[in-house]
Design a protein that fits this description.
By secondary structure, the protein is α+β, with helices and mostly antiparallel strands. It is built from 6 helices and 4 strands, in the order E-E-E-E-H-H-H-H-H-H. The strands form 2 sheets. A two-stranded antiparallel ribbon has the order 1-4. A two-stranded antiparallel ribbon has the order 2-3. It is elongated.
Length: 177
Amino acid sequence: MLKITVPGVMLHDPRTDRIWRIKETQLTLEHSLVSLSKWESKWHKPFLNQKITADEFNDYVRCMTLTQNVDPNVYAGITADVRKQIEDYMDDPMTAAVIKDDPSSRGGSQFITSDLIYYWMVALRIPFECQKWHLNRLLTLIRITSIEQKPKKKMSTAENMRRHHDTNAARRAARKH
């Protein structure tokens, strides 16, 4: 969860020549699968690892907002500093887990959408309460669960022979005593 302050500013809409003031506003944000799903249902395109416009980013901030009854114009007042805070929060892994990339895993040719993440959760039996977790933490859990559920690699013939040899040697030594 991130708490930010969007500063009070004067805004001008050149299309309507309207000027208005936005009061300083505190927002509580959560970068989660729920937020991602809301945004993708509106924009009908993947959000993760894609180029998005400033308007699309501000709308994603709206989707992340947990604060109630926020003036919709507040999002137009997001400054570069506030955007940096939000991006840093979104990039934070939110976990101590480190996963080394598996060279045998598939490449990144697949777009990751909220629907795909929900599928992974169902396939891996991850409870839906996790949809409210920080998105990076949820994706890490999905990766760890996938890795742990993979079948263990079979021993090579040489490893299998060495194991049998060691077992037989231990049995012979036990019979002598």
